[in-house]
Each structure stands twice: as C-alpha cells, then as structure tokens.
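Weekly modeling sync, notes
Attendees: S.R. (lead), two postdocs, one rotation student

Agenda item 3: backlog of single-chain predictions. S.R. asked that every request posted to the team notebook include the full sequence so nobody has to chase files. The rotation student volunteered to paste the first one in as an example of the format we agreed on. Action items at the bottom.

Example entry:
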Amino acid sequence: MKKLRWACLCLILCLLFSQSVYASENHGMDKKAIVFLLDASGSMKTNDPQKYAVDSIAQLIYTLPTDYEVGFVAYNNEICASQPFLGNSQRSRIMESAQNVSYENYSNAGAGLLQAVEMLQSCSADDKSIVMLSDGEFLMEDEESTEQSYRTYQEAIEKAVQEETTIHVIGLGKDMENTENSIFQAAVQTEGGIYYTPHALELPSAMESILTEQLGIRQMTAAIIDTDGDSEQIPLELPFAHANVIRVLLTSDSPIQNVKTNFKADSADQITGERYSLIEIKNPQSSHLEVSFTGTAGKQVQITLIPEYQVIPKVTVAYEDSVPSDDAVDRYERDAILEYTFFDADNENIQLWTEEYFEYGRICIQTGQITEEKVLEGGRLTCRMPVNEKLIQNIHFDCSELPVNVLSMPDIELEFEEAPLLPVPESVPEPAPDPPYAVYGILAATIAGILAVLMFRRSGTASKEEFVSVQDDRPAPGKSSYVGKLNIYITRAPSGYDIEPLSYNLFRLPSSKVISMAEVLESCGIKEIFEGAGRIYLNSGQGRSIVLTNQSDCCIMKSGEILMKQKSYPLYEDAKVDITFEDEVSELTFQYKVLKPSEMV
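Predicted structure, as returned to the notebook:
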C-alpha cells in the first residue's frame, strides 16, 4: 500500500458545548407617527361628492399597526379641522373629525402642510410621514394671498426635509393629471410617493399602494365577496397563530351593514362606518374566524387581514473546531453554528412562525459588520460564522420581508468563546537504524524459523503474539480516566466471513493502560489477523476524550479526512473512525461513546 506521507489533514471536532442566549427584556416598540392632510376646499364637492376621502382615511388609520400614532389636518382657506396625535385605541376620534369636515371655500395648501409638519416637529417619533390628498393648485381670494400660500408651502417642505419627514401626495381629479403640479413638489423633495387618481372611487387603490409600498405595512387579502343584498357568512382560516393583534378590515364602495364576528380571543374591539368595518382581535386563540355582514347588491366587499407581532429572539450556539493547515498556529480553527428561534414577547413559552405559512420566510441577520439573509425552516434560522478569537457581537434582525408586521424585536448581544489550544502531539521515537547487510540472511532465517513454529502450533487459529507488532512503539499513557466504550463494526474481515457488531468497554481499563486495536479485537474474541492493528494505539485523553496514535501503514479516516502516521489525535464523544488495514482488504469502523456513571456497570 502506498504510504501516506503527504500532509493532508483536517480533523473535524464537533464540540457539543452550546449555550442559549436571550434578547434583552426591553422589547419596546420604535414609535412612528403619520398625519393625514386633507384638502377640504370647495372644488372637492365636484371631485369627491360621496366623500370617499373619508373612507380612504379609515383605510389608512385602521390598517396601521399599533406602533403608529396618527394625526389629522384638513384645510380650505384656513385650517378647518385638526386632531393631535392619538394612539391605537383612540383612532375613531379621527374618523369623527374627518366625517364632520365640509368641502367649501378656497385652498390654502401652504397653511395645511405647515400645520402637519409642525405637528410632527413636536412629536418624538423615530419615523415621521404625511399622506396628503389634494385636488388642485393653490387658490385663495386674491393673487397676493395665493402667492403667500405658495411661499408657506415651500417653507413647510424645507422644514419637512430638515426633520426627515416623508410626504406622499395623492392627486385627485383631472387638474392633478400633470405631475409637475406644484403640490407634488412636497413628495419630490422629501422622496415620497406620487399617486394620481382621476376618480374618487380609485382612492382605495392609491391608499393601499402607500400602505404597502411606502410604509411597508404587511396585509393579506382574505376574501373578495360579490354581494347580492342578503346576509353573507364567510368562514376564514387565520394563518397567523399567536399574533399579538390581528385586524380584520372590511371595505366597500357601498354601505356595509350588520357586521358580526365569531372567534376565540383574549379580547376584541369593533368599529363600524358606513362603508367599512374594523374588528381588532387581541391574542387570538384559534385559527378559525367567521364574519357575517350584509352588503349592497351587485357590489363587492373586500376582507383584509393585518397581523402584528412583538417578538423575543433566542439563539443557541454550538462550536465546530478543525485542525488548522498552518503548523505555526497553536489553536483550532473555530466556526460558531447559531440557531435562532422566535418567541412571543408576552409569553416566552410560545414559539412563533412554526406554521407552514411562514416556511422559507426571509429574515436578514446583521452580526457585527456581516449581513446575510436567511430563510425560516420549522420556525428556525441557522447561520455559521468563523470565530477566530473571543469577542462580543451585536446581532440585529430585519423582518421587513416577512409577510407580517413585526413591531418589536430587540437585538441580541452575544459573547463568542475562543477556540481551545491544540493538543501536544505524543513524541514518537526514531526508527532503529537498518542492520548491516551481512546479518540480513541470519535475521531472515531466524524470523522464518519463529514463524514456522508458530504456524505449526496454532492448527488454524491465530495466537496472541500475532496480534502484537514486533516493534511495540506505544505512546506514553494518559493521566485521565477512561469514561466510554467502543462500538466496533467489522465491515470486511480477512477471511471474508461476516462478524457481528462488537462492543469494548474502555472504562474498565486503568488510566495508565495504552491498548492497541489488535488487543481490543482479541479481547472481543476475534481470532483473525488484521494487519497493522497492533500498531494503532488508544489511550485516555483530557475532556472525556481518548487519543488515537497511528504507527501503522493502515489508511485511517475520520469525517472524510486522513489521520496521518506518527501523529496523535483526540477523539471526542460520537467520533467515528474508519480503518482500512495494511492488507488493503480488511476494514472496520468504530465509534467512541461517552457513558454516564450509571452506565459504567
């Protein structure tokens, strides 16, 4: 057999040390604030006679998750309605204010936008935006007032840019068809969205685009129902198990009446308008929901689901170490295998996103300066990263690609352990010098005589001496106790006969004992000769390991890597080693198992 003298080595050690790390208990949400700015000038009577703008306001404020505060401003020739920021439970007051607005007088867009921007200036939110709905240019009672409104509008835009406030503009009616209209400059200069709706009936479509494309609100259309004027009963399956809140929003361009729901949850609220209805379900306890309502014959009712979660991430860390190729390095090369799981912030016994709906959902993980996108599998994410030294890293999660609204998920601060030092190789004595050529004949004759005597005595079975190498170059014994056993599987014996699996208890050996593989096989009752087994040694090692020293010309492999001759290697729990013996025919595999004290009997 060709001797393996080239340096091809990479020993993989799967260290089953792991640790679980939890996120900080402070899982407060980042605050967000938005103002709906409505043009209530007299021209809106023509462009929005049915006041569909009020429905678009409802679509906005009731779709926004809990972490939004919402304000409202309406203007004609002056500010005609203003509602300061309100939390989730008070949003119906904005609808009351919007429904009381009358379309009349001139259009002082400058005063309206300035009011909305100043409201946001006094707010401590981290994310600020304005949604503006207008049907025309600046128009006041005289030219001077119109110019002043325009200047005020530009001043408000400058303040919005300074405050990093984004303005999205919806233009209603044919006068807004030209996107060069001055009103749209608020969106251009703040990098907001521009939307043109020729008819008021198209406002819901524009609003949905702002919610999903600009604000990143995740929602799912559960059903679109063609109504016939009779009561409709719609069963729905909610794919959002354990969401903190699920909003069920019914919208139509015609009246919706007699809205009723049937479901299990901690609590719920219902708000009903003329052409919309909202059911806000808190901590749903079932995936089944029934909604019944009466719609207008020949019209459609859309049912939209808006789920939101507050999440606590947890991570388990395991380390995988390998022998470096650089002989000058004194430590293993280490990879950290990170497994992330996600739990409800209010009840950390509930694991989230294990349902099929979330399978392969994408989450971006930023670890230090490294960002990578991972997909959920069974509610878990797995990452691998090299760890060359002891360090502390901050781990941040971006869930914007998930199909749900994640209102809060705190970062994790994780301390990585340094890789252990490499074991010191056992010293191997230099081979004895070759004998002089003159004595070769005598030595050969002596060996032949010994072998003849042995063959004469054994009558078809091997004696103990045949298992032990003539040159017994055992390594120094270890200082630790043996704590395991070997499970041995002879896959090919020299004779070709099948041999049942074997087990050898190492823990019965004294710590000072160094045993060869030939002696192990003999103790298991094996009488066949495995060439080279007498020069493969095992002795006790540190950390509940054993140490394998190879002095043979056998091919020995672990995890697909070759273990070189005249080298010593630690074997930890569950390590599996494959040996092809020197006859290039015989083969066996053994696995090292660590035993509990109760198992050492």
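Discussion: group reviewed the output briefly. Confidence is low (pLDDT under 50) at residues 1-19, 22-27, 456-471.
Action items: rotation student to repeat for the remaining queue; S.R. to check formatting next week.
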